[in-house]
């Protein structure tokens, strides 16, 4: 049954709309479990009933017309319980309801499974049998798996407004719901980006010059032919004849009119070469997918592999959209930092990533660039979005595609409000960041991952609280040498001189891999990353530390920061290596001095060792992004658990208090450099805890300064005590929202809009 399940799932994924997907489900499921009837009921939440939307075995004219009120019948029972109902004798059940409008006979066997998305029952998938029948566990699991797949298709159809038109369901909302990544409103034109050689991610895009597109396509095919022939010749002696036949089959396909001719037809029908290739390859692959023979079914992967090979050669000519319209909204399954960097700064209006969550690095980069972003839109039809006009709501995590005039007018008004708020914030840019009772709170800048992409905040900040050193490593095809690193670090130290600059040593691994230093792990966030890699490869660490120390000669505004510390021994070993690099440079004649050295508190183990860490170093910097992730056991890049990730969770607040109190015993400074520092509401709590400084992206500096200049530390302490009495993050948010509203600062949160 597993092969049947995979085949049905592929067909559902390839369906052009929800109606076709439902038709596939009811037809194939009825056949797979040998039932007399298979039907799908969808829930109409506005009218509070369940509508028959597809059936195989009942009257087709009943589809879209038969409605079952909430809490009525066995369908209502499945929805109430949100779990399968499996009955051998359904008519004997007290909730059984006979509906003659469907052409129903006296069916006895009944199995209904709920269609659930985000804890909400969207409908019920039902199979019926005339004779008594209790469906087997494997059949229940089979239907349950298909119902889960169907839930995504239903949500997508509701969001895009394509829920079956022949029914009279209430009108769907015309937006895709994701998660807020970076606040703000953007109106613009979509440019789809996609990873290289990912055929499924290739978007549809108009063919500006079909003749040129055809030429590029044929050139790519010819290149693949040469590649395959060379491989075939090289392996001829070592491969048996049956395995060499695969190469012959590929070469025959590359010479066939079904591949070449169909792709060229699609090009002249209006799609560019890569999009036309994707359509053709998928059409070929579906033929194999539908075959019952498991060997032939597996050949679909060979067809797709061939398509990827052609695409690789095509992408050597076209690696990016090339031209970006004014007000570009960058959209992708997984938008990368490099793809953000390719867009001219004046053109980028917003970012939409189908994967990721509000605290993933792309969202952090978007906030640093002051660009609205929405993350985690798992049902977004990315490859059909190119060139569409959209509205992006970074406050609520919504994307409106081809919005109605009334929606457009409302969001234009909100965008104007944002611009007006920014002008108010600008009025305070030259004033000190000081509370109403005279407490000075330095605001520093987080920078490095986006390099020169965003200089906003450089003048308003009192220095750099976190300079990430990963970018020079990520954009190269090998480790940068010492002299190259010296130039990079010298530039940032000179830019902010005499203000302090905190440079973090290399923090690769996890979600920041290097292409030339791959680390393949099943759980990278708990794996080989940060200080662990540096200590295991002292040659990399020593080269970087030497470059950092050399860069500060004559400036001496450096503070050095060690990431991902979880053991005291790691600090001891790193301090010895730093001292060694210092001594070597002195011997070589460089007038270097030892900087102040700190550690990042990012893992729970470090929270409970603040005392012993404070004895060894000069300052502590709390990375609330990772600390929250590890405290709550939530991958901050995973959209499925994004609702659980919350840096205002009571446990996070208590951990922060423990860090601050532990460090104060040894008179050690504590700064916060995670995204929490840039949240105006959270900054109030950090102020109340006694945090010494805050470091954030440039887009948050003025917002946080406005809050701090509007409150006293004593009032912040009162709010902190009230927050600690709360049991839920939602209660803490409401508390802070009300407090900001009372201070006249509600516009900073836009809560409840």
Q: Care to give the gist of this entry?
A:
The chain is α/β, with parallel strands linked by helices.
Can you describe this structure?
The strands form three sheets. This protein has an eight-stranded mixed β-sheet with strand order 7-14-13-9-10-11-12-8. The protein has an eight-stranded parallel barrel with strand order 15-16-17-18-19-20-21-22. It has a six-stranded antiparallel β-sheet with strand order 3-2-1-6-5-4. By secondary structure, it is an alpha/beta fold. Strand 18, helix 17 (568-587) and strand 19 form a beta-alpha-beta unit. The protein has four domains: 2-160, Beta-Lactamase, CATH 3.30.450.40; 180-193 and 326-422, Phosphohistidine domain (Glucose Oxidase, domain 1), CATH 3.50.30; 199-315, PtsI, HPr-binding domain (Enzyme I, Chain A, domain 2), CATH 1.10.274.10; 437-748, TIM Barrel. It is built from 25 helices and 22 strands. The protein is globular. Helix 5 (210-235) runs antiparallel to helix 7 (257-268) and helix 8 (273-289) runs antiparallel to helix 9 (294-315). Mean pLDDT is 85; it is low at 160-173 and 450-454. The longest helix is centred in the N-terminal third of the chain and has 26 residues, at 210-235.
Which properties best describe this structure?
753 residues, alpha/beta, Beta-Lactamase, Glucose Oxidase, domain 1, Enzyme I, Chain A, domain 2, 4 domains, eight-stranded mixed β-sheet, eight-stranded parallel β-barrel, globular
């Amino acid at each position: 049954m597993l092969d049947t399940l995979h085949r049905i799932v592929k067909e559902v994924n390839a369906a052009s709309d929800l109606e076709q997907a439902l038709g596939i489900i009811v037809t194939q499921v009825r056949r797979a479990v040998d039932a007399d009837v298979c039907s799908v009921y969808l829930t109409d939440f506005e009218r509070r009933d369940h509508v028959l939307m597809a059936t195989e075995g009942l009257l087709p004219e009943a589809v879209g017309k038969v409605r079952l009120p909430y809490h009525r019948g066995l369908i209502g029972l499945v929805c109430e319980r949100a779990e399968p109902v499996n009955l051998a004798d359904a008519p004997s059940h007290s909730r059984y309801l006979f509906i003659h409008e469907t052409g129903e006979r006296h069916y006895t066997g009944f199995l209904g499974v709920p269609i659930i998305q985000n804890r909400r029952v969207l409908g019920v998938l039902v199979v019926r049998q005339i004779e008594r029948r209790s469906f087997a566990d494997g059949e229940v699991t089979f239907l349950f798996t298909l119902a889960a797949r169907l839930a995504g298709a239903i949500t997508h159809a509701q969001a895009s407004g394509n829920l079956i038109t022949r029914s009279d369901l209430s009108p769907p909302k015309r937006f895709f719901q994701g998660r807020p990544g970076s606040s703000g409103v953007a109106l613009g034109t979509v440019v789809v980006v996609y990873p290289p050689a990912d055929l499924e991610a290739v978007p549809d895009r108009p063919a500006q010059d079909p003749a040129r597109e055809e030429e590029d396509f044929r050139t790519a095919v010819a290149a693949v032919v040469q590649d395959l022939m060379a491989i075939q010749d090289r392996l001829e002696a070592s491969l048996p004849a049956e395995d060499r036949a695969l190469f012959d089959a590929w070469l025959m396909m590359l010479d066939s009119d079904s591949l070449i001719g169909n792709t060229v037809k699609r090009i002249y029908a209006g799609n560019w070469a890569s999009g036309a290739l994707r359509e053709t390859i998928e059409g070929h692959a579906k033929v194999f997918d539908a075959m019952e023979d498991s060997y032939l079914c597996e050949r679909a992967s060979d067809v797709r592999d061939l398509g990827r090979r052609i695409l690789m050669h095509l992408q050597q000519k076209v690696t990016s959209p090339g031209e970006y319209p004014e007000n570009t909204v960058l959209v992708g399954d997984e938008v990368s930092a490099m793809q953000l960097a390719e867009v001219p700064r004046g053109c980028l209006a917003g970012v939409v990533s189908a994967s990721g969550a509000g605290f993933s690095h792309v969202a952090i980069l978007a906030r640093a660039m002051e660009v609205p972003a929405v993350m985690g839109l798992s049902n977004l039809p990315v490859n059909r979005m190119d060139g569409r006009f959209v509205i992006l709501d970074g406050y609520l995590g919504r994307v409106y595609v081809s919005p109605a005039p009334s929606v457009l007018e409302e969001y234009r008004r909100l965008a104007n409000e944002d611009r007006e708020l920014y002008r108010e914030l600008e009025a305070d840019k030259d004033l000190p960041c000081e509370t109403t009772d005279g407490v000075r709170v330095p605001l520093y800048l987080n920078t490095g991952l986006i390099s020169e992409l965003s200089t906003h905040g450089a003048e308003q900040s009192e220095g750099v609280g976190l300079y990430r050193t990963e970018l020079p490593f990520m954009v190269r095809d090998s480790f940068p040498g010492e002299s190259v690193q010296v130039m990079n670090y010298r530039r940032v130290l000179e830019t902010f001189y005499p203000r302090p600059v905190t440079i973090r040593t290399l923090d690769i691994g996890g979600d920041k891999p290097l292409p030339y230093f791959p680390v393949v792990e099943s759980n990278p966030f708990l794996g080989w990353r940060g200080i662990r890699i540096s200590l295991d490869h002292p040659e990399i660490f020593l080269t970087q530390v030497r470059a950092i120390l050399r860069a500060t000669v004559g400036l001496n505004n450096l503070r050095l920061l060690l990431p991902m510390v979880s053991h005291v021994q790691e600090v001891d070993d790193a301090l010895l290596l730093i001292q060694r690099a210092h001594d070597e440079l002195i011997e070589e004649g460089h007038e270097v001095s030892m900087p102040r050295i700190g550690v990042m508190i990012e893992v729970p183990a470090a929270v409970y060792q603040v005392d012993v860490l404070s004895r060894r170093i000069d300052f502590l910097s709390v990375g609330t992004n990772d600390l929250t992730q590890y405290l709550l056991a939530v991958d901050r890049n995973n959209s499925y658990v994004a609702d659980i990730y919350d840096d205002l969770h009571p446990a996070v607040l208590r951990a922060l208090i423990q860090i601050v109190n532990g460090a104060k015993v040894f008179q050690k400074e504590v700064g916060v450099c995670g995204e929490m520092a840039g949240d105006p509401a959270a900054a109030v709590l950090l102020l109340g805890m006694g945090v010494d400084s805050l470091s954030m992206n440039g887009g948050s500096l003025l917002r946080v300064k406005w809050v701090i200049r509007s409150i006293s530390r004593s009032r912040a302490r009162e709010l902190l005590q009230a927050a600690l009495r709360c049991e839920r993050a939602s209660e803490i948010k409401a508390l802070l929202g009300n407090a900001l509203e009372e201070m006249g600062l509600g516009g900073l949160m836009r809560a409840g809009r």
